[in-house]
Every structure is written in C-alpha cells, then in structure tokens.
Write a sequence for this structure.
C-alpha cells in the first residue's frame, strides 16, 4: 500500500467512525459539585422531627421486641 | 449525554436497606448462634433481602417520576410505603412460618411476642421511621446525586 492509498484509507476511516469527543463524558470534574451539595445540606432538625425521633426511641426503649420487627421492614 | 436519572434514583433508594441488611443479619446470627434461640433465619431474611431493597429503589423511581407532576414532599412519599410493605411482609412471614398469629398477639421469629394492643403503635412507628428515613437519607442522596 503506497502513501496515496494510506492517505485515502485514513480519510475513509475518519469518515466512517464518529468522533469520540462528541459524547466523551463530562468536561469538568463533577466530584467538587457533589462535595458542595453535601456541604450545603441543612444539618438542624425541626422540632417536629425531633419529637418523632424521640417517640421512636421511646418505643424501642419501652418495647425492645419491636426493634427486630421494624428492622425486618427496612 | 444521558444522565440516567432513574438509575440514580434506584441506587439512592436501595441505599438504606442495603446498609441495614448486614446489621439485621448480624442480629439474627447472634441471637441464633450465640444465644441459641431457634430463629428461622433463612425464612426471615427472604423479605428484607429480596423484596425491601428493590421496592425502595422502585419507590424512589416512582417519586422521581411523580414529583414534577404532583408536588409533595419525599417524606410523605416514604411514609406511604409501609402501607404497601407491611401487609406484603406479614403475608410472606406468615406463609414462611416467621410470623405466628395467636389469640393474644403475634409472635415474630418464634421469639418476639407482640400483643395486639401494640400492633397499632408499631405500625405508627414504621410510618414515622419511613418518614424520617426518606426525608433525611433518601432525600439527601437524591440531592447529592442531582435528581432532587
């Protein structure tokens, strides 16, 4: 195969195969965005949810047999 | 680029049951091998291992699909799930011999006696637990994965 044929084969291959860069994944590092979202999440619980947590803990403390039953459904 | 939001919703949904399952397995093994209690571990693990994680994942996919159409909080969406899961789990547990129905109450795992008067509080506790898990853990994961 001479140089002309090689060049022609190269062009044919380039025309046949789609460019890889078109869907090559994200153009930037997404892990920093994930970290920002994790830091931006609110940390404080509202009083209503705290009361619900206290109720759950109270039920588990006064009636420990309910713990494996509740875990069975998680 | 296809970001596969439903796949991410499924993975966020199965996160909690996948973490709880080894804990549950450890409890059952300790109770059966160390404390020598006759817990039917093989039958008891079918529901939490085979059913619950898949339903959590599918339920989160359903939330992702329905949230833009019906605006409601994810905690409420999660609190509805025990209405579906508890009858299914109780039916499967009864058929596998994990749950026995008696005259004064039910017996789970041939070891945990629960009188009928405490079934309603346990059901409410499941609703509360699911509400909190979905609001704070699944909701957090949905935000982290960019689908909330």
């Amino acid at each position: 195969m001479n140089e002309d044929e090689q060049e022609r084969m190269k062009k044919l291959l380039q025309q046949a195969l789609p460019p890889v860069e078109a869907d090559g994944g994200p153009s930037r590092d997404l892990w920093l965005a994930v970290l920002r979202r994790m830091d931006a999440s609110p940390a404080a619980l509202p009083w209503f949810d705290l009361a619900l947590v206290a109720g759950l803990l109270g039920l588990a403390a006064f009636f420990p047999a309910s713990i494996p039953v509740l875990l069975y459904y998680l | 680029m296809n970001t596969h939001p439903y796949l991410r919703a499924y993975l966020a949904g199965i996160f909690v049951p996948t973490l709880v399952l080894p804990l549950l397995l450890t409890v059952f093994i300790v109770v059966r091998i160390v404390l020598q209690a006759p817990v039917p571990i093989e039958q008891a693990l079918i529901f939490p291992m085979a059913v619950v994680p898949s339903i959590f994942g599918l339920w989160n996919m359903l939330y992702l699909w329905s949230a833009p159409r019906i605006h409601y909080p994810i905690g409420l969406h999660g609190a509805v799930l025990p209405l579906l899961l508890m009858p299914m789990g109780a039916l499967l547990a009864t058929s596998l011999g994990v749950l026995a129905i008696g005259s004064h109450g039910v017996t789970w795992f041939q070891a945990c006696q629960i009188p009928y008067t405490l079934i309603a509080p346990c059901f409410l506790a499941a609703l509360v637990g699911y509400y909190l898990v979905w609001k704070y853990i699944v909701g957090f994961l949905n935000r982290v994965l960019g689908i909330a």
